[in-house]
Amino acid sequence: MEFFKTLGLFAATALAEIIGCYLPYLWLKQDKSVWLLVPAAASLAIFAWLLTLHPAAAGRVYAAYGGVYISVAMIWLIVVDKVKPTSTDWIGVAVSLLGMAIIMFGPRSTSA
């Protein structure tokens, strides 16, 4: 159960980061309103806050988060960008999720 809770929190974190970066992209590259920077900033603030909700050490959380970010970005590719991922894209997603699981749930020594 802890695995799915961690994965869900990472997924929400990744979505907040992607939205926070996508909105300025729309303004800069697609000539959308500069006002998109307001929800972008809010989304990035939520992203930073969500990262603090993990009980693990910050460096471990940031390292493991990268694996889930890759997965959520691939879903974004499909849903928003309307691009079909390749088989090697999916292999990369699997490897990144395996890495995340190893980092977050691997055995730890009890000493510092």
List keywords for this structure.
112 residues; mainly alpha; 4 helices; 75% helix
Describe what you observe in this structure.
With 112 residues, this protein is mostly helical. It has one domain. Helix content is 75%, strand content 0%. It contains 4 helices and no strands. Helix 3 (58-79) runs antiparallel to helix 4. The longest helix has 28 residues, at 2-29. The protein starts with a helix and ends in a 7-residue tail after the last helix.
Outline the fold blueprint.
Blueprint: H1 2-29, H2 37-51, H3 58-79, H4 87-105
Question: Can I get a quick summary?
Answer:
The protein has helices at 2-29, 37-51, 58-79, 87-105. With 112 residues, the chain is an all-alpha fold.
How many structural domains can be distinguished in the coordinates? 1
DSSP summary, beta strand count: 0
The main β sheet shows up as: none
Number of helices: 4
What structural class results from the helix and strand content? mainly alpha
Radius of gyration, taken over Cα atoms and rounded to an integer in Å: 16 Å
Please state roughly what percent of the residues sit in beta strands, choosing from under 5%, 5-15%, 15-25%, 25-35%, 35-45% or over 45%.
under 5%
Overall pLDDT confidence: 89
Helix coverage percent: over 70%
Distance between the termini: 26 Å
Please state the oligomeric state of the protein chains shown.
Answer: single chain
Low-confidence stretches are: none
Shape: flat
* Helix-strand pattern: HHHH
